[in-house]
Amino acid sequence: MMPIWSSRRGSAAGNCLYHMPLPPVVVLLVTGFLLAFHSIQASPVALDVLTLSLKFYEAQQSGSIASLNSFTWKNSSHLTDGYSSSGVTSDYYPGVDLSGGFYENGGHVKVSLTTAAVASLLALNGLAYGDNSGFSDQLSAIRRHVGWAAAYLDKCFYAPDKFVAQIGDLYTDDRYWGRPERQSSGGDEGSDSWRPVYTIDTAEGRGADVLSQAAAALASYATLLTKAGDASGDATHYRDRAMALWSVAKELEGVYVIPEGNITLLSRSYRDDQAWAAAWLCRYQIESGFSPTTEDYCASAESYWYEMTSLRGSQLYVTADTMHLAVAALLRDTMGRSDAYLILNETLLAEFNTALDAAFRWWTSAGDTACSCADVGLCKTPGGFMVLQEHGSAHFTTNMAMLALLTARTQPGLGAANQLSNADKFARRCWAHDQVSYLLGDNSGNGNAVKQAFVVGLGSVAGVDGSISTPKRPRHRASSCEQKSGKCYAASLDNVYELQGALVGGPKKDDSYTDSRNSFQSLVSIEYNAGFAGALAGLAEMESDMSAFGWSWDSACGDSGYHSTVLVSTGSSDSDDCSASACTDKSGSTAPCGLRRGSLSGSSLACDALYSADLDVRLALTDTGIQVTAPGYSNGAYISAGSGALSYSGLTLRSDGDLVWTLLYTSDLADAVSRTPSEWACAACSIQEYPSAKGTANGPFTLRLYLSATDAATLVVLNSKGELAVSIRVALGL
């Protein structure tokens, strides 16, 4: 069984006809630090499926197979890509080494735009979750895969005015069903060895989409290497190559036109690709401290964002052809990492969030639209899965799940007043969890006799229900033909080798799935797995938190996560006024207190400093401990620390992980019992800066209270990245 992947979706009508309380008074005293973030491990289900999904990229490797490739049935293949068998150079065979890269799908065509988009999306998630020590193996795999793509794309830029867009011919690919190492290269048109190199000549003024995506991929890899402390010089090399590609790409004004009959990817715009490239160069600039002499890439990213949105809007989904929302997510988390860009671009940051919010509203509101035989657009299947289109249905939805989890994290550089509410964060997280759970077989509401998963090899993951059906016949040449003899089998028979980790096309609108290599539902692609891996990384991060304290998705999603949160920092205050009178208005005023509540169930709770699921529970910080009380239940018992002059403290996380109480001022609270909770809570409403702190006034933190059935609880501090930084064991008393 899979206890973490629980079912919470309601069923939808309209199938096609062909298929049918906290304790009343709690005083918390800090007794010591027991658990730091980096000792917490992610839960086995999401993390193990993430490992499996990343393994799929090993099956797609072309060229000289890396020693780390774990598929024993894989061989090196297409080692002479770029050369003709006769040794004569031509437009189709330039006579340069173009081996390597990834096969785009189950065939043997290599598509640079797809490869680049996949690499940079993987890198985006590698950066987002890379500080989690529980993901070290997965992060290493991401770096390897991004690096494999980057090395190939580097080869594709074989002359200052030439870049390889595609290797292989779809007509030949359709005719040849066999293993890639048995297909020779460099032959004449019409033969099985016809593997033409389709090259962009920048003098023609087209190809901005492909070159921009390649620049983004190389810049993303340089950023990953820089974050990992690369000392080999590779980060500098790929940065320089990315800059060189970008200098060409930004001067082009058209998409690459694929030769007739070879439309592997319909690219309809290039402005989003240019914005994506500029955004990645901006991210490298900020992460590395690099100061370019010819161009401020962050200023360029802003300019290309406006250019992109003025022509096509922000769009409502993500694919390699439609990167608008990915640009918004990347820039949202990039600009906030620089004080200079944060100050200058508050309006721009709001635009990023507006674009993302609009997309999620569209996806979640469409949950009320039941899929039917009619073309109703985005809709919900009877089993609860959101389908934008049947071809590659899983791909579209997992990309949105990836973005939902990325954007539910704390936005760097902004106070809590600018963050999503807790309810909105958990709405995104729980929606993503439901969609991914469906693909892992939690789809009992679909009317089928057997639960259907859409990930090949899922049965090898510990904790997966053995009765779940998994795909056995993905449309993939190498895994469907014997390694030694080369013999291939009929589409109705299982693949000879298990294509572990591959996400297949997905369900139809009636939840049905046809497990045949002749079905479009069995298609696999490196693009499909990119967003899927990102979504799994986000879920694994959430579960690393929840599993450590006995949470389940049902409990977290049941009350939008409010049952555990007792404090949120808004960051620095615009005013020093932290008097009682400044915090008494709960009607929606944004009074200038450093700690505020946010909103819950539509009720305005601004300035009440602290919140929990029980709105009567309050919290105060003193120099002797953390005081929690529930006046509504305990008749005026507000603060148990006594009367007289008390020192109140701000809360700071130092870089060494210590929780520091910083003295702010002394206040006479002799009459504290007679004051309202909102008044005395305001006494601790200012947050002090501290040198080299993880979470301070300009980097919001969150306190979470985990209550157990015994007389103990755990107080957890999350830093500005949403990471567990400190865990404190506390004693409970009435």
TrEMBL record:
Keywords: Carbohydrate metabolism, Cellulose degradation, Glycosidase, Hydrolase, Polysaccharide degradation. One of its GO terms (molecular function) is cellulase activity. Pfam families: Glyco_hydro_9. The keyword Hydrolase applies. Its EC number is 3.2.1.4. GO terms for biological process: cellulose catabolic process. InterPro entries: 6-hairpin_glycosidase_sf (IPR008928), 6hp_glycosidase-like_sf (IPR012341), Glyco_hydro_9 (IPR001701). It comes from the Eukaryota. Residues 48-536 form the Glycoside hydrolase family domain. It catalyses: Endohydrolysis of (1->4)-beta-D-glucosidic linkages in cellulose, lichenin and cereal beta-D-glucans. It is an enzyme of class 3 (hydrolase). Belongs to the glycosyl hydrolase 9 (cellulase E) family. This is cellulase. It comes from Gonium pectorale. The lineage of its organism: Eukaryota, Viridiplantae, Chlorophyta, core chlorophytes, Chlorophyceae.
